[in-house]
Amino acid sequence: MISAPDVVAFTREEELEDDLYREPPLPEEYSVPLFPFAGQGANPWAKVAGSKFTRDFILISEFSEQVGPQPLLTIPDDAKVSGTFDLNYFSLRIMSVDYQASFVGHPPGSAYPKLNFVEDSKVVLGDSKEGAFAYVHHLTLYDLEARGFVRPFCMAYISADEHKIMQQFQELSTEFSKASECLKTGNRKAFANELEKKLKDLDYTRTVLHNETEVQKKANDKGYYTTQAIEKANELASVEKLIIEHQDLLRQIRSYPYRKLKESEFHPYEPECALDRADPGCDQHPAPSDPAEPGETHLYTHIPSYTPKLIKAKSAKCFDKKLKTLEELCDVYFFTQTLDQLHHIERTFRGDVCYLLTEQISRALLKQQSVTNFLFEDVSFLDEKPPEKQYRGCQGLDQDAMDGKCLEESLTPKVVISLGSYKSSVECVPIKMEQEMEDSEEPKMSESVTSEPQENLDYLDADIKGSISSGESIEVLGTEKSGSGLTKSESQASLPVIPSPQAGRSKVGSRRTVSEDSIEVLSTCPSESLIPEDFKASYPSAINEEPYVDNDDERGLRFAPRLSAGVADEQDDISKQESLVQVDAACCIGKESPNFLELLPYELDSRYLSGSREVSKSSLDECSDSTSYISSAASTCSDRTPSPAHPACQATERHRKRAGQNALRFIRQYPFAHPAIYSLLSGRTLVVLGEDEAMVKKLVTALSIFVPNCGVYAKPVKHWVTSPLHLVDFQKWKLIGLQRTVSPAGVNVLHALSRYSRYLSILDADSKTLRCPLYKGTVVARLADHRTQIKRGSTYYMHVQSILTQLCSKAFLFTFCHHLHLPISEREPEESVVNRRMNFLKLQLGLANEDVKIVQYLAELLKLHYIQEPGQGGNPLLRFDYVPSFLYKI
Amino acid sequence: KSSVQTIGEEQIQNPYTELLVLKGHQDIVRFLVQIDDCRFASAGDDGIVFLWNAQTGEKLFELHGHTHKITAIAPFSSSDVSEEKTHLIITASADRTVIVWDCTSGRQVQKVSCFHSTVKCLTVLQRLDVWLSGGSDLCVWNRKLDLLCKTSHLTDAGISALVELPKNCVAAAVGKELIIFRLSASNNGSEGWNVLEVKRLVDHQDNILSLVSVNDLTFATGSHVGELIVWDALDWTKQASECNFWDSSVHPDVQPEIKLSQSPNETSVQHLASDEECVFAAVGKGIYVYNLQMKRVIACQRTAHDSSVLHIEKLPNRQLISCSEDGSVRIWELREKQQLPAEPVPTGFFNMWGFGRANKQANQAAKKMQENTPMYFLELVGDLIGHSSAVQMFLYFGELGLATCSADHLIILWKDGERESSLRSLTLFQKLAHNGDLQLKL
Prior knowledge:
Low-confidence stretches of chain B: 248-261, 342-371
Radius of gyration of chain B: 24 Å
InterPro entries (chain A): FLCN/SMCR8_DENN (IPR037521), Folliculin/SMCR8_longin (IPR037520)
Radius of gyration of chain A: 33 Å
Pfam family, one (chain A): Folliculin
Family (chain A): Belongs to the SMCR8 family.
Number of helices of chain B: 3
Keywords (chain A): Autophagy, Cytoplasm, Guanine-nucleotide releasing factor
Oligomer: heterodimer
Structural class of chain A: alpha/beta
Main location (chain A): cytoplasm
Strand content of chain B: over 45%
Helix content of chain A: 40-55%
Mean pLDDT of chain B: 81
Number of strands of chain A: 15
Number of strands of chain B: 32
Largest sheet of chain A: 8 strands, mixed
Mean pLDDT of chain A: 65
Largest interface: A-B, 40 and 42 residues
């Protein structure tokens, strides 16, 4: 709804221009070159020139110890997608930047090889030549046969749009972490199995060797050992050592810190179902008696016994053996799970970045409207955890506690909270600056840094927020022309304003030893380096954002004035004003009711007014920057057709389009569409009566977009009923498709309709008549203008959603204004409250005639929703009016 | 065309703009009984008793114990001041048992199953702290369910109605007869009671269907053939009787064909209600207001419903509610007619007995009387359509609304939408305050 392109496109244009003026002009090399084909009317969404693939894809590569970097698979698994793109070359590139410190082997001072549970590393990498930018997620899997027991892998999300990768870094990181976690879990399991098998083999070998030695001993009566015997003894000793080593390895893999998994909200598998679904063909071993993680052990129960093999003293040369495939390395179940997750990622991030961002913004905004969002939105998908929360992994904690926790963690609350409370360090390593460029840009750069440090802080911050996660350090590197950059050290020194434990360490050398995740923005293209254009994009928002940061912990519906928090500085005030105005504009209230602000005795919820989520904040401005693109994208249907950011609602998306199209047709065809829609909006059940099921269902689908939800459950819409209606049905359903038949049963159906006619509006699809109360308001006229220029169903759906959202906010204001419903003083008569209420509805909210009833009905729904105790279904109640109905004909 | 008055969809005076459907029963719901200010019980042919919250419509308890349909229900609150007030209800069923339930815990307190016939009526004599069960005989019980005394077998048909009279007397309707019993303390024991038949009144021509106590001095009975008799409660003499007042022959303004169509069913006095001044009778499809002082019907709606009126109740605000087999509930208002007698009375929908169109044949004396007395009529102010089958009974809860029960197994709580809305607002702000989301801005 918020993302309706028609709305967004025209709201922020002036501001955008202003921002451009205020901003200090960027040096030439930092600015983005104009789109070369802009003059020819091409849209920037057309396939990015230079990229050799048609759309984003996911690549899994391995650094094979035998053949070097090699691509394993792509998602989608379609040769057309990657096109002429050189996967081998790109694999080489992405595998060459694996910095993770994964020692396996004999660390000094340790007798046995040690497994290191390394964290994955997440890197952003660009290749301008290939026109490819990638989010690269490195992970290591254990393989007993591999060198050092590890096999380095990486998953890469490859896109032609660098911006997209940078913007969606956080989300990509979260999603890929899930996939990686799933792979690694399966791998640990498989590795443990392998170890057990190996141990059995070794045990068996030892027994065999031992027997042989005994036999030799007996046969040998010469009193001295033959070379053969010595060899056997050595062999035995080495097998013994191997056994101990492997046992130690097994213990290590079992002692994997499982709390890590428990903390995270993502559980790649349920142990029980894993057992059930695990491939029966994959051989597993009964757990040995040594203590292991309980969660782990019962994965290994009742498994077919394994016949041990003899292990030859000299193992095969590593090039002789065939390395295990990825599928073999992980359990089949986990492998498929991972693939599912990767497919999910691919679907989620499909489409243009601006679409993803708008989707995220509207989702974030929608989430904040926790009081009203159930009315017209499909809130079921909101229940799913957003990515940033998942990453934090604070499962049981409520929002406030979580924020509090993050607040403690953060060293510089102001900045860091706005990032979503991630501990972070920024190191800017501008290495590859050309000398002459530096000369021209350096003074300006430092000027902007020194003159407005506060803004600069946010400036940085805004960029990081899209691309950083907790416990990570971001490093912006220019790789290709590195070496110089001494002159940049000045500005560099002023840039890392954020104190961080890692800030002081040396830049390149130490990085490789740190096992913490590191993010490196590698860019090969000088013109797009260092400061990506999204810096600029988020720049204007810097002042606005800051106060929200302060109030970030004030989640939940809160009417407390923020002034009392003691931070009542001017800036706060200004921003509050701004945010209010912003909302006003969105709700179309502001201009109509100038004294609306004074009237409100309570401060509205901060969540409601302003984005407290980093997603919405960071991307809101960018969105407004690129509004013109959005509108053009909506009109030009490019090959990169936007798809929903959330695959779960893909079906509903299609449904919306269809419903919107049908609704458009309805309002064009039926001159009495307004009273029909009014009936739905005011909670009066509308019955669509007709003989033809398809036609009735189509009408019901069309009208369903106007039906307010009564709860968070499914819409109160029944598409097709053949039996007589009863009072209970009107409680449950607000829109019903009813079959008309000529049979005696049909008579009963009609009889019931006439009996309950006072609760119903009846749209006769066959004779094209409507029987319902009169409507003389204005809201529906805006909602359903039969002369509308909107052509596409999805656009109309968004139009409807935006108007309905206005109604929702009016209903919200009406519901939560204390003095509109309760007397101010005890002696105040009820009549004056009623008067005040009506005045508010008519004068402040600007509602005419029957529109009042709509808002009143929505307000009742809000009240019911709010006061309803969780877990308690609550009796559905039927509200109605005794108003006369009229018959409309075409 | 039906002669029943209709009101249309615009009902300004009808306050009931919100309803709650209470589901639970699996058969006809016949009885509703109020327990306290906000609770009521419902019972019917499925033998289950439900306790409901009249405000929220919440189902409080589901009481199982009877195997057959329930024939009578009565609330029994403890009058003991010292202990905490306990609310009990007594239910009688066709399975020949009587069960006492505790409304607070929802438990069965005690069960009596020594009856020879179905108990058809129950009456609690709060003053004596005893209760009476009427079937083929009359039994007197104390709170602990000890049988104190009983009459001999009266008839097979049994007692159909019981009403408490002054001086420890009760009137029992047994077929056509009205029998007065007196309870007296027995000589030998402190707890003992004796029940004696004092008088048999045989004035009714047909079975007595309804029995109502008007005040301390009078009570009224109505029979199947439409006789209404007002009795003196102290000496049990007939104070007044109104026979055939439904009869169109005495109403000159009624067309003869209506008279022909009248069957005994349509003239039976189904239910009686009263306030201090008037007795309100549900007779056939009509409702009649009988003034005790004037000793005549002052207002009526001959065809108030499409079929028999089953229950009638007077509200404090001069309103009258009736429910009927046609599934509707109607709200009437008793209004004084501000008209000069000389003016022709518009007939309209109102068939006012004695106040119809000025009839030349009407006798002069009656006309004279009419001129001196205030004239009344019943105006339909609203109807409640919700049930799909006969509305058996209703219970008026004042501000909380109106509960109706029906043969469609449902109970509907009708509520004042305005009031509910503001109550919800109040709850909402209380919850906001409770959650700490609400702070007044200074």
